[in-house]
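ok new one. same drill as before - structure tokens go in, u give me an amino acid for every spot. 548 of them this time. try not to just spam alanines like last time pls lmao
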């Protein structure tokens, strides 16, 4: 029986929770499970961050033992990258939205989609098993040899196993997204009519497909060196630790774009809706994502300028690191042009993308250009300046986009409206807390404080205390945000199908929440999805995004 017939007849028999969720192959439920699981992991990662900042509130605090401090930043980095940002953007948002946005009933391979989620959950649980057996990894999220080869205990082995499983989940998901986007678009949904979030997710999927095997090779050879007598990274036996760094960063720098390109897609969906203007430069935004994806594989060695490379070998990577700023700048210019002259409505999602993402991510991008220059990187590498840069990109950028997306699509997923006032309070706490936490780190780094240190010089106490206060503000904002959404699920006002007046298919053709097979009848696309203020089907869209 085809999906159309199933959608028409309906399955009125109530399913058990086990069949309805554990055995589900519905992309929407899988997306929700990704989101809930990632949020739980996020709070564990956030707790590790709070412990790190509490330890650094004073130069000689003894909240954590040195070994525990190493474990805390290892777990924090691993969770936030592999178990929160990447699965939230690609697993949660991607799974829930992409099929509806392209006018499909589901993903191309629904069972493989479910397998991807359960592998993700398994990978996370394997990492957490190390907590309960007293073998938490302590080598940092990069696990550089030779220390990682010599590290005692099973903690790193759990980490390697977890990364392997998570990588397999990412590869399967990437294949599914590519095939679905390529083959399952509804009638009239050409590539140049796809929502920009779909473009972003497609590029991200290619990055994961081609980059993840390099990470698998790096951690596999590391495991072989640890337990099977190989000498890939053993210098005394002729190995080369820099080989690991090349393999690791060949994946892990493109992974930064896995964390930011879908976030850029979210920004591109929200800005035109609340500016009530067509997106400026649709093709430039879409094709610049492709350029970022391609150039992302050509800059990895800028992480290794101080690792023993010849200076001349670093110059090409410095150049590509500068060039990759161009397609990113194209996006920022087009987003600002979209805002220019618009009838802007500062809802919670709009605050997160306009003031949050555009402001904070730009700071991180500018400091990234600085670190991409060999002479500056020689002085700033492995200092807190790098920590500030990285967090302005992935926290100020990816995190604020995730928050924006959660509020923006919340009515679609739940059929309820969140509390707008408390949503805006959460934004301002996030915005203030982020700047309090990470902006002082620029000065701490320039003053010479290395990252991953347990103690520091007393003259840096004030700036570190400001950063610690900011981290607690972020923690409170996170609790307020989740409390707002949880309250809205049970007590929130019922949402209409399209409360924002948006024009992509999930808003115009699907109920809130969508039915099992997304659409009552398959949509036919006749125009691009951002024609605010323009004629559509012979009628002019008014300021609320509906035809007048």
């Amino acid at each position: 029986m085809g999906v159309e017939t199933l959608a028409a007849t309906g399955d009125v028999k109530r399913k058990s929770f086990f069949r309805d969720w554990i055995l589900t192959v519905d992309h929407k439920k899988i997306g929700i499970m990704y989101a809930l699981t990632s949020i739980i992991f996020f709070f564990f990662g956030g707790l590790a961050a709070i412990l790190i900042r509490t330890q650094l509130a004073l130069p000689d605090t003894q909240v954590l033992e040195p070994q525990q401090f190493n474990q805390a930043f290892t777990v924090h980095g691993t969770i936030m990258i592999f178990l929160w940002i990447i699965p939230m953007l690609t697993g949660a948002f991607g799974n829930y939205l992409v099929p509806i946005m392209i006018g499909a009933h589901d993903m191309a391979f629904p069972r493989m989609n479910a397998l991807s989620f359960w592998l993700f959950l398994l990978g996370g649980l394997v990492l957490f098993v190390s907590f309960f057996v007293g073998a938490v990894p302590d080598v940092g999220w990069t696990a550089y040899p030779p220390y990682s080869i010599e590290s005692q205990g099973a903690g790193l082995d759990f980490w390697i196993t977890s990364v392997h499983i998570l990588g397999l989940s990412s590869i399967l998901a990437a294949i599914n997204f590519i095939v679905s986007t390529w083959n399952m678009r509804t009638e009239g949904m050409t590539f140049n009519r796809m929502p920009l979030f779909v473009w972003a997710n497609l590029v991200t999927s290619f990055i994961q497909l081609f980059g993840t095997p390099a990470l698998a090779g790096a951690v596999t050879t590391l495991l072989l060196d640890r337990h099977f007598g190989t000498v890939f990274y053993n210098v005394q036996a002729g190995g080369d630790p820099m080989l690991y760094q090349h393999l690791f960063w060949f994946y892990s720098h493109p992974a930064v774009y896995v964390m930011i390109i879908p976030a850029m897609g979210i920004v591109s969906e929200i800005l035109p809706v609340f500016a009530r203007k067509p997106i400026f430069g649709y093709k430039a935004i879409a094709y610049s994502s492709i350029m970022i994806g391609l150039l992302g594989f050509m800059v990895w060695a800028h992480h290794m300028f101080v690792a023993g490379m010849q200076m001349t070998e670093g110059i090409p990577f410095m150049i590509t690191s500068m060039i990759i700023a161009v397609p990113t700048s194209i996006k920022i210019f087009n987003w600002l042009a979209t805002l220019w002259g618009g009838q802007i409505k500062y809802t919670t999602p709009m605050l997160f993308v306009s003031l949050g993402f555009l402001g904070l991510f730009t700071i991180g991008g500018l400091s990234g250009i600085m670190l991409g220059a060999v002479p500056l990187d020689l002085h700033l590498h492995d200092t807190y300046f790098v920590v500030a840069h990285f967090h302005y990109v992935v926290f100020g950028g990816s995190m604020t986009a995730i928050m924006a997306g959660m509020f923006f699509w919340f009515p679609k997923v739940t059929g309820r409206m969140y509390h707008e006032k408390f949503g805006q309070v959460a934004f301002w706490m996030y915005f203030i807390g982020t700047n309090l936490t990470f902006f002082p780190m620029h000065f701490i780094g320039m003053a010479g404080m290395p990252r991953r240190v347990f103690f520091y010089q007393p003259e840096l106490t004030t700036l570190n205390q400001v950063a610690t206060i900011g981290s607690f503000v972020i923690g409170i904002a996170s609790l307020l945000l989740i409390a707002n959404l949880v309250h809205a699920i049970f007590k929130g006002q019922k949402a209409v199908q399209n409360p924002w007046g948006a024009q992509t298919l999930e808003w115009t053709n699907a109920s809130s929440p969508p039915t099992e097979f997304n659409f009552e009848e398959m949509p036919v696309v006749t125009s691009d999805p951002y024609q605010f203020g323009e004629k559509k089907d012979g009628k002019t869209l008014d300021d609320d995004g509906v035809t007048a």
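Confidence is low (pLDDT under 50) at residues 1-12, 540-548. and btw The two ends are 40 Å apart (CA to CA).
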